[in-house]
Amino acid sequence: MTTGLDSAALAPLPLRSRPARAAMSPIVKASAAFLLLTVLVALLADWLAPIHFTTQNLAARLRPPLSESGGMTYWLGTDQLGRDILSRLIFAIRTSILIAVLGTLIGAVFGTLLGFVAARFKGLVDQGIMMLVDAQAAIPALFLALTMLAFFGNNILLFIVLVSIDGWDRYTRLARGLVVSEQESEYINAVEALGARPVRVIMRHLLPNIVAALVVQATLNFPGTILLETSLSFLGLGVQPPGTSLGLMLGEGRRYLLNAWWIAVFPGLTIFLTTLSMSLFGDWLRDRFDPTVDRR
């Protein structure tokens, strides 16, 4: 029978104290504001877009920004089929952000799970998982994605899975290292000595103390995931028409750079600002949660 003292000891232990809060510089605040705006645009795309992104008006094709046709103002111009660039850009942001978020989450969960398994079982299991990690790190994600698409064809579910392969090895390395370090802590030894099951140790004690590092890694990995999605769509292997994404818009606009620059420039600028903002915000999060950073 478990005593009252044992039950108290098995209760979740308080998280380790966080390092001093890192001040947000103006550029980090601007990055966070831009990311928030991007998320809002993705969530409210149906209400923000002036017209549906597939609506065509051949009489207004290749119109420059701020032009008018048929009583409608095309704020960012039109493309080669007379489709409104602003509407397409809004829905492209939704598509690219959704694919990148799902890909990042899948890669993070899969990589973290493998890291926990490697740290807990050790031996041959650990060696086998780390061999997979080394193999993944040696193969460029874009090359692997192109190979898989060539063999299995293109569909949205496979595309999301392929986007998620970018960076799962980093989560595995990080989770494994953190769990191995935490397992040597006195509080973990005490909890295990009191008979706590491995699942309870992981979910109630280990995971809460390493989740901050995993979140930081996700923010740092997110820009690479967006670039992989946009690269595949740019090559025509990602989102297919009549759908839209930032990479697809960029690919369609490259043939019109000389006489209709706005088709490619606006989605390209959105890709640049999104990845830059997430990188800056991820660096700030790393400084915020990393206790080894000197803030004096």
Automatic annotation (TrEMBL):
Listed PROSITE patterns: ABC_TM1
Main localization (coarse): membrane
Superkingdom assignment: Bacteria
Key words, A-Z: Cell membrane, Membrane, Transmembrane, Transmembrane helix, Transport
GO biological process, one term: transmembrane transport
Membrane-related topology note: Multi-pass membrane protein
Alphabetized Gene3D superfamilies for the sequence: MetI-like
Segments forming domain ABC transmembrane type-1: 93-282
GO cellular component terms, semicolon-separated: plasma membrane
TM annotation in the entry: 32-53, 97-119, 139-163, 206-228, 260-281
Cellular localization per UniProt: Cell membrane
Family: Belongs to the binding-protein-dependent transport system permease family.
Protein name: Peptide/nickel transport system permease protein
Annotated organism of origin: Bosea psychrotolerans
